[in-house]
Please model this.
Amino acid sequence: MRVKEITAWQVLIPLKKPIQHASHTRTETDNLVVRVVLDDGTEGFGEGVPREYVTGETIDSALALLKRSQLPEQMEECTSFKSTLALAERLRLADIPGDERGCQGNSARCAVELALLDAFGKHHRHPLSDVTKLLAHDDLFEPKAHVRYSGAITSSEGRKIRIAAWKMWVYNFKQLKVKVGISGQDDVDRLGAVRWRVGKRMDIRIDANEAWTPANVRAKILELKPFGITAVEQPLPHADAAVLREVRKDVGVPIMHDESLCSMIDAERAVGGETCDLFNLRLSKCGGFIATLRLAQFAQRHGLRYQLGCQVGETAILSAAGRHFAASVKDIRYLEGSYDNHLVKEALATTNLTFGWGGWAPALEGPGLGITIDPKALARVAIRKEVLLG
Ligand SMILES: [Mg+2]
Model:
């Protein structure tokens, strides 16, 4: 079986409310959707969310990269799902000058990889979670019937953060991420208000999105430590990551790399430099399901933990892929994603993947991604189309 068509769309997904963090505010999101069609007509979909401040990609650079990556030549015949995995892992996008971290095509790569895995998964009757079973059976594979997502509080303050925290408690989340470092906000006040409302058993972690500096990072973490935070995500800009080797020891709170962890090159540097305790793995940022699985294996081998994170504005395609990852990979320290109904106005699928009470959601049955894309929904949000093959 071969791939006969590859199509990419730029889709503009409106968000239900503006999302603000220390480095950005957005009201809509430009996502990349890729569709692969096999010889027998089987369709598969993939998605990537290019973010300039994470992997240096924009929607324009991602589409341009796909156009010059000679994808048709790479689409060899696949006779089994295993041979699809080899094809997907070999997938190489064109070289990007100056991309010394090896990440500037990751969201584009993720979109193509997921579309291939979805199409061939459907054809060979393998759910996406079988990728973990086949590639990481002995070290990472652990099938689960249900997974539990974490809640998140972004930019609220004052009365709004008290209501948001109360909602998290009522909803019975077990884990909660709070964004900090937003200018003009008092994080001690905010964390205090949250902790008081969610109770002492809630696992709270914070994400500073590169807001702090080598000069103030220790003080910033230490003033929030009394609220019982279990991790600090990306306290410093990536360029200052080396400082975290000492900061980790000084503050005694686990540090998680997010913007600083986009590729295997980043992972090797983080381990070599002892700059973090956890990786925030996100499928789009890390270049797809298999690349993310390899990063989880690398973390595990080096005694680090990992979170499966998500991108604000993911549609059901990335939500489904994340669900398969979470339901098949063991020891995920924190889980984010499937915010669909809470965040995006158009999730593209006929299946609603939003988590339920307590953050719980079931593993997805069915081959490939296990969801059906609504072509009318795709047509409503698509603003540009590129035919890459066919
Ligand atoms: Mg983050």
About this structure: Residues 207, 209, 233-234, 258, 280 surround magnesium ion (CB under 6 Å). The CA atoms of residues 259 and 282 lie 10 Å apart. The longest strand covers residues 3-21. The chain is about 35% helix and 20% strand.
